[in-house]
Batch of 4 targets.
Target 1
Amino acid sequence: MDSLDKINEKELWGLKRVNSAKILVVDDEKKITGVLQAYLEREGYFVITAHDGPEALRLARSEKPDLILLDLMLPGLSGEEIMQQLRSEGSRVPVIMLTAKSALEEKVYGLSIGADDYVVKPFSPQEVIARVKTILRRSDTDQVPLTDILSLSGGKLKINALSHTAVWEQIKLNLTPTEFNMLIHLARHPNRVYSRAQLAESLFGYESITEDRTIDAHIKNLRQKLQNAGAPNLVKTVYGVGYKYDED
């Protein structure tokens, strides 16, 4: 990874320590975990590392990190298997995939099984830091007003932005942070149509390079979870434009 070979120590130590979240960094290449750990710790994050699948799953369960940076190609247990296991256990921890797979289908598959975002190798540590900050900011409940509770569909759908929970007729929707933020963003503005680019900007920031298919994958997951709880199709496609929350 060429971008990781060029570490500027002055730049590294100049980063501010302003965060306190716990991050699990998983990659079988110790050089990669070491560099990411250094950059993240200079930003103030508490970092733990793992270099194989079983160790990563154990730490994800015992340490309960606020975010996981997860390589997909791991010995013992793949990143996909780890995500599937965590999501099946009800974990909503944000996951950013670290993947050498550039094919869009592979990225969409990772998102479909519970990842929130991805970074393709080779990457710069600064790019990873930016993604981490965006995802953690979107899942930070401490910055949400106490009154930010939505009741929709005649009270059947209740969204609590403070606790990051969504319930359909007393059935809790097990949404990832990205799926939750997409739902509440659309639900706050019923019948307003958002393009994929607008949703990507809202969810991932102005510098997002998220492809349309990525947004489609998150929408598909959100719809499936609503449907599994018994809700009608509330997130509708406006062909050629984008998506909207619509109870009609």
Target 2
Amino acid sequence: MLLASAVLSFAVNALSPNGIDVIGKYRELSGSEGPIVPPTAEPDDPPFIDINVAQMEHAAGQALFVDARNLEDFECGTIPGSVNLPFEYLPEGDLAPYFDSVLAAPKDRMLIVFCSGEECDLSLHLARNLKLQGYTDLAIFFGGAREWEKFGLDVERRKQCG
């Protein structure tokens, strides 16, 4: 009876439009030698993470992803659930109130800062500024939006871009 119910369950699941995958569809790990680190990195910078760690943290849902690019690039495609904090448009003066209002997160929440990819150092500069403002759990995903998309991970697009 147990065997018959198991077979029936698998058959119903296989035919259902809302069926659950029996074998998960996971991407291959990058096999990289670690995170991408820019040549301008300094010893006291927040740690750099690779695509595997970024995806794991995103899946866990505890970290806040912070996109350091301008609004146009952010709207064209970003890591789902990210907050846009464009480094090039930071206001003059005290950044603490601005960061507090945009991030709306405690200073000990994990923040993963990113931008376009290896050619973009906005994430590095934004993370340094966040650290100066007292944010304590920071990481930099230097592979950025480009590496995220290259690995076939979901991208949130707020508008279609050319």
Target 3
Amino acid sequence: MKELFFYLLGAGILLCNACAAKQAKLPEMEDELVQSPKPINVYDIINYKDMEDGAEIPVWVSQYLNEGVLGVETLDEYRDRYVFIVENTGINFRTLQQWSAAFSLYQDFPRRVASRIEKRLLNAANQYPDDEYGDFFEASVKAASDTYYRGAARERDFWLLLQYFEEDGVTVGPESYIFLVLISADKSFMQNQILQILNNLELEHKPDKDQTSAINRIKENFFENF
């Protein structure tokens, strides 16, 4: 599990860098120990869905590009819903179009919920998650990925064609498509489902006293910053 933790941490750093690349301005790296190439920090939107028909980029897409999922959840229509946005990038439009059409709420969405639960547990942990929570950490993520979430709905999709630049105006790589799929779920309904998962886990090893305290503590405020 500790090897898994380091793997997840490394993957998380790479994911953060990748997600940040789609924003117009990138924050500076806070961890001075992380060495990375000069970041891509500017892009031009070359094309997007229905652009030829005079359509504008939807507000939810702009919010996501600039502020991430939490920015989308601040929109009035999503204040009582959790938003999950799945994205895929590449240079082959047809392949990405097929991916978007084939995206399955039943097969693919549970992994998105499990990832969000995993992130919440990691952010709350004061030590390695398997030391902090015992078997609860791995069991909760696995159970969340095996659950079908009733009430979740695929609402919208969108695509953009972007060209990235460095600060000096030099282009970085070829033009690249980004495909987005927006899924939302009623907050109260999903919270009840997640609490059922967390409260009905069958753990191989009983948590010790400190682990039990940590588990109870995270359950009490699990949906803060979720």
Target 4
Amino acid sequence: MKRKGSGVKTTEIADIAEIQYSKKQWKTLQEKRDLAIDIMKKLADNNIQALIYGSICRGDVSEQSDIDLFIPFQISSFKLELALEQKNFNIYEKRIVQATPKHLVKAHIYLSELVCITFPLTSIREREFDFIRFGGTLTLDELSENRRVPGVDKRLMLIDPTELGHKESPVMGFESIVAKKVGANVELVKERVRVLTTRDKVGRTGVYLNIELSPDENIEEIFKQIVDRDPIVRRRTKI
């Protein structure tokens, strides 16, 4: 069976589909990886070590795929913005987000609609690293070595890279296998299945925090205002 769109060829074998990438998709993947490497190297020049996660790590990209970088430690937004400014990156947008009251509070700095650098505003728990691993993640060195890793996409399909593209298979019913494959806790995989299948049935319910900042606003100052007025967020800062 051939899947329509993006020049992608698909052969279905039971629950596993073999995807062969087109030349255009390989080119798009390389271009996005090159841009990610450039940003990550320039951050590293300022002793800021970032991870990349999502489809760029797996390989299943399109022209509209995001370049998502994650700094796995708390950092001054001033330091990050200064590092970006020194490397001639312009800031497109800034946001403070939190998926639910129990989740990590994060800041997003967008360099474009498709390029986002995320860093934590509250302490990170191991479970939150699992969220990153769930979709696939790479360090700068691993990305520079042209590695690809397994991860789960938004359709709840496990994407497992191959020489010609990737194999994809369902996560539901195979949570333990998927957890081992992506290096995440099996309970998190089961939770993601519950959350994403519920969204499919009842629609997206939004997030607890999603605050857009003006370019001249300081992320930490706005976050402090949120903490001062919101006891739920304040409790999360103490975890």
